[in-house]
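Convert to structure. Protein one:
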Amino acid sequence: MRVGLAQVDGKWPNLALMRLSAWHKQQGDETELFTPLRQYDRVYASKVFDFTPDSRYLPASTIKGGTGYSLTDTLPDEVEACFPDYSLYGNPDYAMGFTTRGCVRSCPFCVVSRKEGRLRVVGDIYSFWSGQKEAVLLDNNLTAAPIEHFKVVIEQIRTNGLRVDFSQGLDLRLLTDEHAALLAKVRLRKQIHFAWDNPADEIAVRRGLGMVAAHMPLSRVMVYVLIGFSTTREEDLHRVESLRGLGVDPFVMPFNKRDRYQRNFARWVNHKAIFKSVPWAEYKAS
């Protein structure tokens, strides 16, 4: 059987599709990324965002999954347990996967708790790593995991000399000095990501960043700032300028990218040459 695997959106290789590819190969099937006009016995499509339009080339019989289609549909257990087939994407030089699923929080702007439930440990680095030089951790809230699991993950990263990207961010509100000391020991693929979504969390955010600063330069840190969900423009600017004052890179995440203010504010902050040279009050959007 020939199987086509369609990634509708998302910039990363799609983990679900790589697991589906691995499972089908175990059954003796041929798999490849979906190509329009080719004939397939079965087609799967995975979508992250519900606002992404489908490809008009997908056949009507396509089996669809991912957050962009449904918050309740999941891979069968036997597929979820498969080691990712990285050859589907030409064997990139990084591994990617989860060591935990779910989250301890229920933020109203986030679908993770509704889709994945409460946080639980599902594996470790060896669940998805096969000798690559780098690893991308997709855990939604690794700092909420038991500290012993956190230690195991960090030790596996260090033992194998991996450069790591905590792609979904870590939780400053749950960070301890022990977390910060462990994080300082790893080689980073990108800056460590945290988030400051709620202005009311300022004390916890400052406390967490203070612990990070005790173990590593804050130049290794980026903090996501959600705007446009429940905050005022004054609160948006306060968070961004507070982070600037601490020597931390803010990165604005607009809740509604169609809103002009949110687009402009994000462009001002995220374009670092402009952010460092032009005050918001003087910024003229193009």
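Protein two, convert as well:
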Amino acid sequence: MKKYKAIDLFCGAGGLSSGLLKSGFELRLGLDIDDDALKTYKENFHKALIIKSDIKKINGDELLKLSKIKKNDNFLLAGCPPCQGFSNIGKKDPSDSKNQLVFDYIRLINEMEPSFILMENVPGMSTGIGKEIFSRVVSLLKEKYFVQYDVLNAADYGVPQIRKRLVLHGVRHDIYNILYEKYPEKMKDILPKKTHVQDIRNNQKLKEWVSVGKAIGDLPRIEPGESYEDGKIYNHVSRNLSDINLQRLDYIRKHGGSRVCLNESLSLSCHKKITNSYGDTYGVMDDNKPSSTLTGGCTCISKGRYGHPTQNRAISIREAARLQSFSDDFRFVGSLGSMSVQIGNAVPPKLAEASGKKIIKYMHLYDSILRNIKREK
């Protein structure tokens, strides 16, 4: 089967690239400005050209030349512009200068004219404070592309995590028109179909959501501050914990999994003042459900519901990676804090893979139509 080329802008540690690679794409180039993330990217994507650059300082002709892609090639330009300004978890700052980087992504789309585009971001970009910016983005893209977007739950695509993301697919108008003329039914919905569901009793054709226990239950037991590595399992390392936090986790696990159960001696003073703020902090994951959304603090119990379901510690780097659906051969580089941020910021590979598979189907259909047209001539 033909390998289609892809470029990943704002590639980070490589979650989107990993999914695209597994879906059948040939990753030609990854671009980002974060040193730590690019070290991890380099560790895992040996065939891709890696560019450290401010996206504002690079143009489409340079990217085409560096990636050895021709402008008329059937290729994908993918990207996940920084989303902190739109995130419900982040600062929600509409004036954050990073919010404008999405327009550099559009600039490069216009300069390179890829046949297909893929963008992933937080839901707040389309429904929250980023709604005005996103409306402009869609309007600009529709000048040259047929566009569809929706907020998808990563758990519906085999990711053991409740993580809602805005996913946008686009097909250049000339290609879309050719495909629609031949396959009108197939072109009505160009987003990936769900593969998993919360309750299979409601839809037995799909698989059941992947639980935390199923995702990480087979990993070797480690204590807080310990690590385990055997040449097959990498980055299985957890943060150290104070005695009082060990007591808290033990108590929370035995009394429902939430910090609201803590007695007077174990409660934190800051939590006593604001009982309804950040209620997931110091929480313990449920073995039988997908995890809550992972953030850059996903290996720290004070940052969310990141307590291991059966052991008195926070989840390890490898466990966090599995909950994001990274494969075990994907190796992270950097300090424990840096690796946590890389994982929390990543696109879940299985969600990216679902997008990649859908787009590749259309790429094949388009190429087959062109081949038939040539034969008829």
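The domain at 212-345 is CATH 3.90.120.10 (DNA Methylase; Chain A, domain 2). The first strand starts at residue 4 and ends at 9.
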